[in-house]
Write a structure and sequence with these properties.
The chain is an alpha/beta fold. It is 59% helix and 7% strand. The chain folds into 4 domains: 142 residues, Mannitol-specific EII, Chain A, CATH 3.40.930.10; 108 residues, Response regulator (Rossmann fold); 188 residues, no CATH class; 177 residues, no CATH class. Strands 1, 2, 3, 4, 5 and 6 form a 6-stranded mixed beta sheet that branches. It has a 4-stranded parallel beta sheet with strand order 8-7-9-10. A hairpin with a 3-residue loop joins strand 2 and strand 3. The relative contact order is 0.06.
Length: 669
């Protein structure tokens, strides 16, 4: 690698045109002129094909176009510092430092090694600043060779003292970073963010450990790992569990999606906080109960949003378990007695009449087994589904005030159900209870009274405040809004149903698991507790629409594989299962790399699916499961046809937009 780059492979401050392909052509000519490529056309074609698959611009005004080609005779690095800078697709603008890596066709290991080394070096601001200030090609050459570790250095005298040796060893120690990731559902974003940070840390040469606070669990950070870390990264949409463990550590906190989009930036920002004397540090706990106090970080809008997402996150398992069990119960009841109608399962089980013997599996007392099991599951599922609103309120309050908010939120949420406030009442109850509990936590009280606050005083006062407001003042208007919404849903037919399906579908396809997607899902699940056909139709439209984006990406990569890179094709294979399982986040890798084409395609495909579902009257009593709940839905054929139609529309639109983008790039070259 000592001959990786030479002065004649460096171009400084020349006008290389306005197109990235003109820059690549110029660098390919330098490589060929230096005798490192046997054919310019072959090399340029390979580099252009690679660039058309994925943008090679990275934040910081940098681009690293690269390729493997039969024409390349040895691994080569060419560099340009064009004036003016040229757009290579980075989010922060055009690039003025461009490194072209040309590797032999059979040089996979060398190619990846070069790419990794250069990427790590280019993340160092001191290195890129020196490259921008260099006056000659020889100066650039020296900087690059130093970065790649191939420049011969003068031998240094051995350390004069053990102290000096220890200092040298300490300065060379790899930086250590720990992270926590979470998202509202804990299904996809949590783990994608963790992987993004992990791979970025490996590329930058940092020691890294991550704790994923998601639904599938994960390895928990030990206190020793936290104590040894130089900095902490929180990529979260919910409050961090056990945040007090990180007290005193430098940290950076951002949205979970940011760790997917720009993981390197978050890692560098965390280390910058550690290096700065005035950098952010997590506050040390003030007492043994500090883990139960409210999170005081961030603006109120962000904190309320996180609290709402916390409530939704904890509510979903109740809705999913209760709804699916309830749907199975309905199915067994319908199979046994098709004309049973809307009968209370407690009557079937004899639970409302003390004068009769209650049937059981040991003594069915004339009740058919399938009807008995159906009524039992109906009752069990109803308990889970009916707990939805109180749980939503309890964990909204928890998101604002931690554990002292749970009891007031749950009780106030139950009051909201009693007065007919529905899920809107649950949201209001949770916010009122959480805010009251949070404000009480700010009071400066004597130690003997402070110890009673989280267990007795805060739950008592916050429950009276929130529950009283809901019961005496807000219950009637909330009940009116909820009943009006229910009547509107029940009255929908024809064009109005199609329009609602279009809107919900577009929302599901917009941000793929983000707040807009979650708002549509919450709207659908909130109505299930009413048990009306209209609410089940809304639920079906949301499920089908949420399946479409990953399925559309999977179909596109299958039908036109040449438009996609190898990693994108692999993501497409995984998206088949994710889409079929109603995990919209399966389309995120595509949306992150190509948002201007993926998001419109996802929205249109999902909107078409939602409209077809609502128009055909597809209904689902279950709130989750994707294609795996097909036996529970009403009109299963149209369920599948709606999903198929939306998938085809989204896939075709994405293929067309991606193909047009490639042709426009050729026209500008």
């Amino acid at each position: 690698m000592s001959a990786l780059i030479t002065a004649d492979l460096i171009s400084l401050d020349e006008d290389l045109g306005n197109s990235r392909f003109e820059v690549i052509a110029h660098l390919a000519k330098l490589v060929t002129a230096a005798g490192r490529s046997t054919d310019y056309d072959t090399l340029y074609a390979a580099a252009r094909a690679r660039e058309e698959k994925t943008d090679t611009g990275i934040p910081g005004g940098i681009a690293i176009p690269h390729c493997r080609s039969q024409a390349v005779t040895q691994p080569t690095l060419a560099m340009a510092r064009p004036r003016p800078a040229v757009d290579f697709g980075a989010q922060d603008g055009p690039a003025d430092l461009i490194f072209f890596i040309a590797a032999p066709a059979d040089g996979d290991e060398a190619h990846l090694k070069i790419l990794s080394q250069m990427a790590r070096s280019l993340m160092k601001k001191s290195f890129t600043a020196a490259l921008r200030e260099a006056k000659t090609a020889s100066q650039v050459l020296a900087l690059v060779e130093d970065a790649l570790g191939v420049r011969e250095k003068a031998p240094q005298a051995p350390s004069a003292t053990p102290v000096a040796e220890a200092a040298t060893e300490s300065s060379a120690r790899r930086k250590k970073i720990v992270a926590v990731t979470n998202c509202p559902t804990g299904i996809a974003h949590t783990y994608m963010a963790a992987d993004g940070l992990k791979y970025a840390a490996e590329e930058l040469g940092y020691d890294f450990k991550v704790e994923t606070q998601g639904s599938s669990g994960g390895e928990k950070l030990t206190q020793a790992e936290i104590d040894q870390a130089d900095a902490v990264v929180f990529a979260v949409a919910l409050p961090v569990r056990g945040r007090e463990r990180f007290a005193g550590k430098p940290f950076v906190e951002g949205a979970v999606k940011r760790a997917i989009d720009e993981p390197k930036v978050m890692l560098e920002e965390a280390l910058a906080e550690a290096a700065s004397p005035s950098g952010k540090r997590l506050a040390a706990p003030s007492s043994a109960d500090s883990s139960e106090s409210a999170d005081e970080g961030g603006p109120w809008g962000s904190r309320i949003y996180k609290a709402l997402m916390t409530g939704v996150s904890y509510m979903i398992p109740f809705v999913a378990a209760g709804g699916i069990i309830l749907a199975i119960g309905f199915m067994l009841e319908a199979v046994t007695m098709p004309n049973l109608g809307d009968v209370d399962p407690q009557l079937i089980l004899g639970l409302k009449d003390d004068s009769v013997t209650h049937p059981s599996l040991l003594n069915l007392d004339g009740v058919p087994l399938s009807l008995y099991l159906g009524a039992s599951l109906h009752l069990i599922g109803a308990f889970g589904l009916n707990a939805m609103v109180p749980i939503l309120a309890a964990y909204i309050a928890y998101g604002l005030a931690q554990r002292p908010g749970i009891a007031p939120g749950f009780i106030a949420g139950s009051v909201a159900v009693l007065v007919g406030g529905g899920f809107l009442g649950g949201i209001v109850a949770g916010l009122l209870a959480g805010l009251c509990a949070y404000w009480l936590s700010l009071l400066k009280l004597p130690r003997w009274m402070a110890s009673m606050m989280p267990v007795v005083i805060t739950p008592l006062v916050a429950t009276l405040f929130a529950g009283g407001l809901i019961f005496f003042l807000l219950g009637t208007p909330l009940a009116w809004i909820t009943s009006s919404l229910t009547e509107w849903l029940n009255s929908m037919t024809g064009a109005s149903a199609l329009l609602l399906g279009l809107i919900l579908g577009a929302m599901m396809g917009f941000d793929l698991g983000g707040p807009v997607n979650k708002a549509a899902y919450l709207f659908a699940t909130a109505g299930l507790s009413a048990g009306t056909l209209a609410s089940q139709q809304v639920m079906a439209a949301v499920i089908i629409s949420g399946m479409v984006p990953p399925l559309a990406m999977a179909l596109a990569t299958t039908v036109r594989p040449k438009l996609f890179s190898a990693p994108e094709r692999e993501n497409g294979k995984a998206a088949w299962l994710l889409g079929a399982s109603f995990i919209s986040e399966g389309a995120i890798p595509f949306a992150t790399a190509d948002p201007l084409r993926v998001i419109p395609s996802s929205m249109v495909g999902a909107a078409v699916a939602g409209a077809i579902s609502m128009g055909a009257g597809v209904a689902s009593p279950a709130p989750h499961g994707g294609v795996w709940i097909i036996a529970l839905v009403q009109n299963p054929v149209m369920f599948l046809l709606a999903a198929l139609a939306g998938t085809i529309v989204g896939s075709v639109m994405y293929i067309v937009l991606k193909s047009l983008a490639g042709r426009q790039a050729e026209a500008t070259a």
